[in-house]
Amino acid sequence: MTYSPILRRLRQKAFDYPSELDDKFARVITKVKARSMVQEARKPVAPQKRGPFSGLTRSELAASRTCETDWY
Question: What average pLDDT does this structure show over 29-44?
């Protein structure tokens, strides 16, 4: 179950709820935001592409200040 669509739907319909439910709405959206952030943090991070010759990423190659043109 992903919380992103739920959070998006709640934000889009925020003004559709009666004003007497403002406190409940705030509690619900806070919980959904927290769970969504935890879910995003658990996603696996894709490894960065490395150059075929140096074995460095683009940012590592730029930080090394060499003249190697590893990325075409």
Answer: 91
Q: How confident is the model at residue 70 (pLDDT cuts 50, 70, 90)?
A: low
Tokens of 8: 């998006």
pTM over 0.85: no
Q: Give the list of residues 6+ apart from residue 8 with CB closer than 8 angstroms, or none.
A: none
Domain ranges of the chain: 1-66
Distances (CA, A) of 69 to 45, 47, 55, 60, 63: 26, 21, 12, 13, 13
Other C-beta atoms lying within 10 Å of the C-beta of residue 9: 11
CA 39 to chain centroid: 9
